[in-house]
Amino acid sequence: MSRPIVAIIGRPNVGKSTLVNRLTQTQDAIVHDQPGMTRDRTYRSAYWQDREFTVVDTGGLVFDDDTEFLPLIREQALMALAEATAAILVVDGQTGPTGGDEAIASWLRQQKVPILLAVNKCESPTQGLTQAAQFWELGLGNPFPISSIHGSGTGELLDALIENLPASTDNEDSEELRVAIVGRPNVGKSSLLNTFLGQERAIVSPISGTTRDAIDTIVEHNGNTYRLVDTAGIRRKKHVEYGAEFFGINRAFKAIRRADVVLFVIDAVEGVTDQDQKLAGRISDDGRACVIVVNKWDAVEKDSYTILEYEKVMRSRLYFLDWADMIFVSAMTGQRVEKIFKLVDKAAEENRRRVSTSVINEVIEEAVRWHSPPTSRQGRQGKIYYGTQVTSSPPTIVLFVNDPKRFGDNYRRYMESQFRQQLGFAGTPIRLLWRGKAMREVERNSANRATKV
């Protein structure tokens, strides 16, 4: 990344993610009273005065405990500090200095990056200086009393921070392609992200629900820039309790909505489940371009016909995404992972593509010639006057007809298949909007009134 990186370090539950939200002016980082909400390192963009930088939120550091995910969280925090231009140690002003703070401070004093000390939870202006003064003993210089919730003191902290940051050299001309990696728990989303990057960017564990936040990572490939977003595994709603998993799934749904392309990861061993079908329907309803990634292909016993049989079965179950490309990969061995980028580029291009009105009407004319619109029992036949594409992402085509009610589901599906056969649109959903004569009259009258004015 060309922007300088600022790592946020500290014990669990001192308010690191709340500070990240304050510095980045977002609510993207999950904040909850439960300690250990953040596990992976997550990147967010921020700026202060004339400086732009990237804030890295990390999990709570505990040096004397190797239970559950704590060693992996330490590894992620160490990697964040290794690439950082500066770091902010966050401590709890209401609790005062603890043994954990002293252990982290002792470790930070051995690092080569500048360290700023932020004493959080100093909501009272009169007591804030007294609370902060306790932390001089950590030997990290001036402690800044702040309140991440209310924002007090963060201006002074940022003024001191940017003195340690070089000017930004971001290339604003390079457009990012946003790619969300989604799927059920334990299908290999984080492993796929790590394989893309060639490093342990996200914590990988056989324990379901390891990833909680949406993890943004910038990747350069063949001259293109991708923002890969690893998301929490999405389970059935009835199995999700309010807390870490609830917040993580909401972030995953948000990542789908803001993505240009969704990598929908399926477990090749387990096959397509009911939950996979629901996710497929959501991706289609949100109008996102999609590539179906069948992971763990190395674990499947196969012959020369296996891949064809698998794809046939999976497509029959994922009929919501019958327009999406499918690729069989192994995140563990790296098999075919490199080819995913090509499919992502193709899906994004089709999702953004526009087709002229004349070409659309040629398709309509030929489709009607081969299969006339249905006729009612009273002898009234449906008529398509013309069509035009009104928007992209996803491609949306309005068809002006005499009466939308005369066009049943079968004929509507036929028209969509004709547009796909003639125009492509592989990798993206398309929307067909059917508007009747009454709607045309309203639009014509509105245009006439606007012209008179």
From TrEMBL:
<protein>
    <recommendedName>
        <fullName>GTPase Der</fullName>
    </recommendedName>
</protein>
<feature type="binding site">
    <location>
        <begin position="183"/>
        <end position="190"/>
    </location>
    <ligand>
        <name>GTP 2</name>
    </ligand>
</feature>
<keyword id="KW-0690">Ribosome biogenesis</keyword>
<dbReference type="InterPro" id="IPR027417">
    <property type="entry name" value="P-loop_NTPase"/>
</dbReference>
<dbReference type="InterPro" id="IPR016484">
    <property type="entry name" value="GTPase_Der"/>
</dbReference>
<feature type="binding site">
    <location>
        <begin position="57"/>
        <end position="61"/>
    </location>
    <ligand>
        <name>GTP 1</name>
    </ligand>
</feature>
<dbReference type="GO" id="GO:0042254">
    <property type="term" value="P:ribosome biogenesis"/>
</dbReference>
<feature type="domain" description="EngA-type G">
    <location>
        <begin position="4"/>
        <end position="169"/>
    </location>
</feature>
<comment type="function">
    <text>GTPase that plays an essential role in the late steps of ribosome biogenesis.</text>
</comment>
<dbReference type="InterPro" id="IPR015946">
    <property type="entry name" value="KH_dom-like_a/b"/>
</dbReference>
<dbReference type="GO" id="GO:0005525">
    <property type="term" value="F:GTP binding"/>
</dbReference>
<comment type="subunit">
    <text>Associates with the 50S ribosomal subunit.</text>
</comment>
<dbReference type="Pfam" id="PF01926">
    <property type="entry name" value="MMR_HSR1"/>
</dbReference>
<dbReference type="GO" id="GO:0043022">
    <property type="term" value="F:ribosome binding"/>
</dbReference>
<dbReference type="InterPro" id="IPR032859">
    <property type="entry name" value="KH_dom-like"/>
</dbReference>
<feature type="binding site">
    <location>
        <begin position="10"/>
        <end position="17"/>
    </location>
    <ligand>
        <name>GTP 1</name>
    </ligand>
</feature>
<dbReference type="InterPro" id="IPR031166">
    <property type="entry name" value="G_ENGA"/>
</dbReference>
<comment type="similarity">
    <text>Belongs to the TRAFAC class TrmE-Era-EngA-EngB-Septin-like GTPase superfamily. EngA (Der) GTPase family.</text>
</comment>
<feature type="domain" description="EngA-type G">
    <location>
        <begin position="177"/>
        <end position="352"/>
    </location>
</feature>
<keyword id="KW-0342">GTP-binding</keyword>
<dbReference type="InterPro" id="IPR005225">
    <property type="entry name" value="Small_GTP-bd"/>
</dbReference>
<keyword id="KW-0547">Nucleotide-binding</keyword>
<feature type="binding site">
    <location>
        <begin position="120"/>
        <end position="123"/>
    </location>
    <ligand>
        <name>GTP 1</name>
    </ligand>
</feature>
<dbReference type="Pfam" id="PF14714">
    <property type="entry name" value="KH_dom-like"/>
</dbReference>
<keyword id="KW-0677">Repeat</keyword>
<feature type="binding site">
    <location>
        <begin position="230"/>
        <end position="234"/>
    </location>
    <ligand>
        <name>GTP 2</name>
    </ligand>
</feature>
<dbReference type="InterPro" id="IPR006073">
    <property type="entry name" value="GTP-bd"/>
</dbReference>
<feature type="binding site">
    <location>
        <begin position="295"/>
        <end position="298"/>
    </location>
    <ligand>
        <name>GTP 2</name>
    </ligand>
</feature>
